[in-house]
Specification:
By secondary structure, the chain is mainly beta. Helix content is 2%, strand content 49%. The chain has 1 helix and 18 strands. It starts with 5 loop residues before the first strand and ends in a 5-residue tail after the last strand.
């Protein structure tokens, strides 16, 4: 597992639905969440007026970033210049979570529903698993497992971290995410699990955009 010294998160571009001008960006932060820089992605809205910025992943081979607008997959350099745009087959529309697989130099994508796929950088589908939890969202790859956030129970406790064993294909709930009410991104830094919540955007039980930190047991 790579220990991150800094991270990059996706910013949809509005603090609340339909409030103000839409200005999506990738925001660079230290691991203590101090703002460093950002990449403006407003130009991508021109091609997709239904854009929903999702799934940010760092590609250490290309030293670049991947994200999706919930339609296509994009790779951009650290200045925001497009390296490639990957169109997915119709059966794999509405991509959400993205993770880069350094071992195979490929991309994992979790759909809004139905699927988890592994694609080559030219878009060819290499592997497919059925993964169909309601409100499944963002992913991270640790060893040979994909962990994914589940849930949009903004005022309740039905929000989880799921897991997919990439050897057996088994899909299950890994743990409940207590005190996370508007679950979005996830990452592990050292021995901590960070769950990003956009509770202000969704007027959730914790009406703030916060990062909840949990203990993370080392995986076998």
């Amino acid at each position: 597992m790579i220990v991150l010294k800094m991270s990059c998160g996706g910013y949809y571009g509005r603090m609340r639905p339909y409030e103000g001008e839409l200005r999506p960006a990738l925001i660079k932060m230290t691991k203590t969440f101090e703002y460093l820089d950002e990449i403006d992605l407003s130009s991508y809205v021109i091609d997709n007026t239904d854009m929903s910025l999702q799934g940010v992943a760092y590609d250490d081979k290309d030293d670049a970033l991947w994200f999706t607008d919930s339609k296509d997959i994009f790779e951009v350099d650290k200045n925001g210049k497009m390296i490639r745009r990957v169109e997915l087959p119709n059966m794999y529309r509405h991509p959400n979570g993205i993770a880069y697989d350094a071992d195979s130099d490929s991309i994992w994508i979790l759909g809004f529903k139905n699927y988890l796929i592994n694609i080559a950088k030219d878009g060819k589908v290499k592997k497919r698993f059925r993964c169909n939890y309601r409100d499944q969202d963002q992913i991270m790859l640790i060893d040979n497992k994909i962990f994914f956030t589940v849930g949009a129970d903004y005022n309740g406790s039905d929000n989880y971290l799921g897991e997919v064993d990439l050897t057996s294909g088994a899909v299950d709930v890994y743990c409940k995410l207590l005190d996370s009410y508007a679950v979005e991104g996830c990452c592990v830094i050292e021995d901590k699990l960070y769950i990003f919540n956009d509770g202000y955007y969704h007027s959730a039980a914790i009406n703030e955009n916060v990062v909840q930190v949990y203990e993370w047991a080392k995986q076998d």
